């Protein structure tokens, strides 16, 4: 129980700084290290990502590092899809889930390693949908000391991606911040810091939907869930404080190595090794 | 400057009142009032700074989220402490849990005698299921936050935002209803 709390705390700090969400680290790492069934690990993974996002949300929203209007449309498609994903995940056999999880985690590693992100992408003109939904804002960059205005484009493509991300998030009980951030940053042209912050808000909404499916299915054990949630919430709160000062590049490299090992472990489990 | 004025006010509260307990009480009250006023002014300054980067509905959402996640955290911690220290009787004793936690959720539910959907609510008197109160509270918090934003969108007649908010509330409520439980 104490080990679970400590692991979750560390993952909470790392997840917020690396902008990947706690669940994507928790499910493969705890699923590989602890003897729990993957149903309970996925249910807890969703709650962990939810709890971390809930803890970080207020600070990010108040400071303009997350934008509610930007989060709401992707959250609607992601949460609807996450319910479908959760239901599929609870129906599929365990070995298929392990194989799919391993494959997906290795895909995440590939995406994190090669994805080109831009601190401040150039958006010449907001598309009709993002303009109608007022998906624009302003945030303060502490490094340059300036206020930076931003707007979004390619909203329909972004929303389609969030539907796919929602299914994966619900199916594997992962937070999907690893996919939210590139979707917002690379596809929709939102600055990286706002993408990371807004990803956290989207996670809190989409994971609420999927978490209910797991809870109502009985895929939760208090002895696994509560120490993990409390550890992750505490870690996330500290992680938010470190966000503007931490060496994000180094932390991302550590996360990539951890995920690589966890992905291989899940694949081996899926093959019965 | 403000601190100086507050200190002056506190000092003046003591003047002409004489010595003794009454005078000390007056001084403490004046200082407390001054500190409260200072804190309120600082909060107002912080709020006006936040409004530069966030809309009022975003701040309202953040405030409710802040309160709710704090309450949820304490609720989780309190019910968990009651459970692990044996103040509440668990449905499955802690010592027997290792035999259950490697089972699929379906099998565990059958052996533990838990119905799917909101069946866990009937077991809320047991320590392990009492923890589900905090989990359900945190999972349902977003619905409350969205309802708060819905008020803003109605007041400002922002029907597009209102529609998105309403749809999200419906999706989350459907998920919470327990009608969508699946299984192996």
Report what the structure shows:
The complex is a heterodimer of chains A (273) and B (184). Chain A is mainly α and 273 residues long. Chain A has one domain (2-270). Helix content of chain A is 74%, strand content 4%. In chain A, helix 1 runs antiparallel to helix 2 (22-33), helix 3 (38-62) runs parallel beside helix 10 (222-242) and helix 8 packs antiparallel against helix 9 (192-217). Chain B folds into 2 domains: 1-53; 54-184, no CATH class. Chain B has 6 helices and no strands. In chain B, helix 1 packs antiparallel against helix 2 and helix 3 (56-84) runs antiparallel to helix 5. The relative contact order of chain B is 0.09. The interface between A and B is large, with 69 and 74 residues.
In short:
The complex is a heterodimer of chains A (273) and B (184). Chain A has 273 residues and is mainly α. Chain A is 74% helix and 4% strand.
Tell me the strand order in the biggest sheet of chain A: 1-2
Strand content of chain A: under 5%
Tell me the radius of gyration of chain A: 17 Å
Percent of residues of chain B in beta strands?
Answer: under 5%
Number of strands of chain A: 2
**pLDDT averaged residue by residue of chain B:** 85
Task: Give, in order, the helices and strands of chain A.
Answer: HHHHHHEEHHHHH
Structural class of chain A: mainly alpha
What is the N-to-C succession of helices and strands of chain B?
HHHHHH
Number of strands of chain B: 0
Instruction: Classify the oligomer.
Output: heterodimer
The geometry of chain B reads as flat
- Helical residues, percent of chain B: over 70%
Amount of helix of chain A: over 70%
Q: Helical segment tally of chain B?
A: 6
Q: Please give the largest β-sheet of chain A.
A: 2 strands, antiparallel
**What ranges of chain A have pLDDT less than 50 throughout 5 or more consecutive residues?**
none
Morphology of chain A: globular
Low-confidence stretches of chain B: none
Biggest protein-protein contact in the assembly: A-B, 69 and 74 residues
């Amino acid at each position: 129980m104490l080990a679970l709390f400590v692991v979750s705390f560390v993952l909470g700090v790392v997840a917020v700084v690396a902008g990947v969400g706690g669940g994507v680290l928790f499910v493969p790492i705890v699923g590989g290290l602890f003897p729990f069934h993957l149903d309970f690990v996925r249910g807890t993974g969703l709650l962990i990502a939810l709890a971390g996002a809930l803890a970080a949300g207020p600070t990010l929203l108040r400071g303009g590092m997350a934008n509610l209007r930007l989060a709401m449309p992707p959250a609607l498609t992601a949460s609807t899809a996450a319910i479908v994903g959760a239901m599929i995940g609870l129906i599929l056999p365990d070995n298929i889930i392990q194989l799919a999880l391993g494959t997906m985690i290795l895909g995440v590693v590939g995406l994190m390693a090669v994805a080109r992100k831009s601190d401040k992408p150039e958006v010449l003109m907001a598309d009709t949908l993002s303009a109608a939904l007022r998906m624009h804002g302003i945030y303060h960059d502490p490094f340059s000391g300036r206020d930076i205005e931003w707007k979004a484009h390619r909203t329909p493509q972004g929303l389609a991606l969030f539907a796919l991300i929602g299914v994966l998030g619900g199916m594997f009980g992962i937070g999907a911040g690893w996919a939210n951030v590139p979707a917002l940053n690379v596809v929709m042209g939102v600055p990286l810091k706002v993408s990371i912050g807004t990803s956290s808000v989207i996670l809190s909404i989409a994971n609420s939907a999927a978490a209910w499916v797991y809870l109502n299915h009985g895929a939760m054990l208090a002895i696994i869930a509560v120490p993990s949630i409390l550890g992750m919430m505490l870690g996330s709160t500290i992680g938010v404080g470190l966000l503007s000062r931490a060496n994000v590049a180094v932390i991302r490299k550590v996360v990539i190595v951890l995920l690589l090992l966890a992905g291989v472990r899940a694949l081996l489990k899926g093959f019965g090794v | 400057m403000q601190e100086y004025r507050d200190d002056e006010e506190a000092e003046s509260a003591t003047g002409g009142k004489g010595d003794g307990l009454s005078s000390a009480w007056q001084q403490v009250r004046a200082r407390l009032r001054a500190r409260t006023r200072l804190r309120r002014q600082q909060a107002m300054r912080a709020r006006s700074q936040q409004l530069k980067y966030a809309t009022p509905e975003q701040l309202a959402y953040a405030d409710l989220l802040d309160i709710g996640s704090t309450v949820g955290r304490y609720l989780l911690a309190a019910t968990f402490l009651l459970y692990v220290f044996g103040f509440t009787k668990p449905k499955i004793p802690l010592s027997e849990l290792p035999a259950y936690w490697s089972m699929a959720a379906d099998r565990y539910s059958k052996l533990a005698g838990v119905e799917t959907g909101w069946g866990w609510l009937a077991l809320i008197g047991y320590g392990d299921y009492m923890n589900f109160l905090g989990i359900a509270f945190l999972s349902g918090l977003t619905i409350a936050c969205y309802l708060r934003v819905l008020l803003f969108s109605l007041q400002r007649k922002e029907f597009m935002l209102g529609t998105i908010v309403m749809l999200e509330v419906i999706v989350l409520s459907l998920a919470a209803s327990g009608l969508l439980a699946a299984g192996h």
